[in-house]
Amino acid sequence: MPSQVPGRAAHRLIASDRIEGTLVCRSDGGQIGVVERLMINKVSGQVAYAVVKITGIPGLGDRRFPIAWESLHYDRRRGAYLADVTEQDVRLAPGADGGFDWGERNDVAHIRPYRPPSFWGSSF
Q1: 7 inside domain
Q2: What are the pLDDT digits (tens) for 32-73?
Q3: Is 32 inside a domain boundary?
Q4: How far apart are alpha carbons 67 and 81 in whole angstroms?
Q5: Segment holding 75, helix H or strand E
Q6: Greater pLDDT, 2 or 94
């Protein structure tokens, strides 16, 4: 993979294997988990949602939950995705109980889109 050349814009595309394993944190900095995989629409080619493996919430153990791709915001400083979700959102999310149909995305919409605070400006 070519290294970034000074004076050139960063690439707009990223390989999925570079996203897998990336931290997902709440906006307050608390860790939720890591991106385990991306679910991609076979027809449109668009990323529908990320499957997040829980690693930072006590009592949830080895669980996964879906979060809409547009709900994640990459923070370059932290090297992590930020999501505007609470611990309760994660506990109640579809998939947390194992009964989620990973081939659909109808149940993903209830997670709020992430909106970075305005004071963070363009550091993202």
Answers
A1: no
A2: 999 999 988 888 888 988 989 988 788 877 788 888 898 899
A3: yes
A4: 11
A5: strand 72-75
A6: 94
pTM: 0.72
Contact 69, 48 (CB under 8 A): yes
State the pairing for strand pair 64-68/72-75.
Answer: unpaired
Residue 110 lies in a domain: no
- Domain range for residue 28? 16-100
DSSP state for residue 5 in the 8-state scheme:
P
Report yes or no: 24 and 83 within 8 Å, Cβ to Cβ.
yes
Q: Which residues contact 89 (CB under 8 A, 6 or more apart)?
A: 111, 112
> Is residue 87 within 8 Å of residue 70, measured between CB atoms?
no
Q: Which two tokens stand for residue 67?
A: 């979060």
DSSP letter assigned to residue 17: H
The pLDDT of residue 7 is above 90: no
Q: What are phi and psi of 49, to 5 degrees?
A: -160, 165
Question: Does residue 8 sit in helix, strand or coil?
Answer: coil
